[in-house]
């Protein structure tokens, strides 16, 4: 059973007894949104991070969801990507392919990975161009409020330092206001070269799920959801979508709340 802890913002915080229960709930959450957006828009735009999030999505590619979801309507994107070849062990594409994409009947053209032949800077520009085309073709929604693309859902992890996407604490990229996609060449988490969505894009989302497991994240979860806002905001605290934000925590990650 999930316990819902009320956060101080409009975010909903759900705590699960185990990593397994969290994975079941995250699958249902995603499948329910898929049904809603496929009905409303006839497409479903889904953004994933790398890291442990992909493991947390494992129940989505098992019955009943593997059979009930209309995968042909899905368009998949990465909130951040390491600038390495797609078959490199550090690639977020490869992680998602092995854990998720290889198991579902999604059209290859609906999987929007970066161009791994380009430099970080060029790959970021190229990915932004790809998003602009998808806005023109009405696959990707645009926020009337912000003018930035509005994804149906972002399924994100958080690092133990409070980073989300490749937006790290204290890095100037957290303040980017104009670009949709940008690049980083000095990521404190290896590998150093990455591309990342910016906060204006992240925060234009219709839905964001933050899936966080393990005791190693407990301190930062406590800081993020606690009252003490005296120091600079962590990137995860800057996640504040137009739509709904749900934190999915296992009890270890929530142990200091
Ligand atoms: O490319 C990346 O590094 C990820 O996209 C990154 O943003 C990840 O989501 C967090 O670092 C959390 O990763 P963990 O859940 O593995 O700690």
UniProtKB/TrEMBL annotation:
<dbReference type="GO" id="GO:0005829">
    <property type="term" value="C:cytosol"/>
</dbReference>
<dbReference type="GO" id="GO:0005975">
    <property type="term" value="P:carbohydrate metabolic process"/>
</dbReference>
<comment type="similarity">
    <text>Belongs to the glucosamine/galactosamine-6-phosphate isomerase family. 6-phosphogluconolactonase subfamily.</text>
</comment>
<dbReference type="Pfam" id="PF01182">
    <property type="entry name" value="Glucosamine_iso"/>
</dbReference>
<dbReference type="InterPro" id="IPR037171">
    <property type="entry name" value="NagB/RpiA_transferase-like"/>
</dbReference>
<feature type="domain" description="Glucosamine/galactosamine-6-phosphate isomerase">
    <location>
        <begin position="18"/>
        <end position="247"/>
    </location>
</feature>
<dbReference type="GO" id="GO:0009051">
    <property type="term" value="P:pentose-phosphate shunt, oxidative branch"/>
</dbReference>
<dbReference type="InterPro" id="IPR005900">
    <property type="entry name" value="6-phosphogluconolactonase_DevB"/>
</dbReference>
<dbReference type="InterPro" id="IPR006148">
    <property type="entry name" value="Glc/Gal-6P_isomerase"/>
</dbReference>
<keyword id="KW-0378">Hydrolase</keyword>
<comment type="pathway">
    <text>Carbohydrate degradation; pentose phosphate pathway; D-ribulose 5-phosphate from D-glucose 6-phosphate (oxidative stage): step 2/3.</text>
</comment>
<dbReference type="GO" id="GO:0017057">
    <property type="term" value="F:6-phosphogluconolactonase activity"/>
</dbReference>
<dbReference type="InterPro" id="IPR039104">
    <property type="entry name" value="6PGL"/>
</dbReference>
<protein>
    <recommendedName>
        <fullName>Probable 6-phosphogluconolactonase</fullName>
        <ecNumber>3.1.1.31</ecNumber>
    </recommendedName>
</protein>
């Amino acid at each position: 059973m999930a316990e819902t802890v009320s956060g101080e913002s409009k975010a909903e915080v759900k705590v699960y007894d185990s990593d397994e229960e969290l994975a079941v709930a995250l699958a249902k959450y995603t499948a329910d949104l898929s049904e809603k957006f496929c009905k409303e828009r006839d497409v479903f735009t889904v953004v994933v991070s790398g890291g442990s999030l992909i493991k947390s999505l494992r129940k989505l590619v098992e019955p009943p969801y593997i059979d009930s979801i209309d995968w042909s309507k899905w368009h998949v994107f990465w909130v951040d990507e390491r600038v390495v070849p797609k078959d490199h062990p550090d690639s977020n594409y490869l992680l998602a392919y092995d854990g998720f994409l290889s198991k579902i009947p999604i059209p290859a053209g609906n999987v929007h990975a970066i161009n791994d032949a380009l430099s970080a800077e060029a790959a970021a520009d190229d990915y932004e161009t790809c998003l602009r085309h998808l806005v023109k073709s009405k696959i990707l929604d645009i926020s009337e409020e912000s003018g930035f693309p509005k994804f149906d859902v972002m399924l994100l992890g958080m690092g133990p330092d409070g980073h989300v996407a490749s937006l790290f604490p204290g890095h100037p990229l957290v303040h980017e206001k104009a670009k949709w996609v940008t690049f980083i060449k000095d990521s404190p988490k290896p590998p150093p070269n990455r591309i990342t969505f910016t906060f204006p894009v992240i925060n234009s989302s219709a839905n964001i799920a933050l899936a966080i497991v393990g005791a190693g994240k407990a301190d930062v979860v406590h800081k993020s959801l606690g009252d003490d806002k005296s120091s600079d905001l962590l990137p995860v605290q800057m996640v504040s979508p137009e739509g709904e934000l749900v934190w999915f925590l296992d009890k270890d990650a929530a142990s200091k709340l």
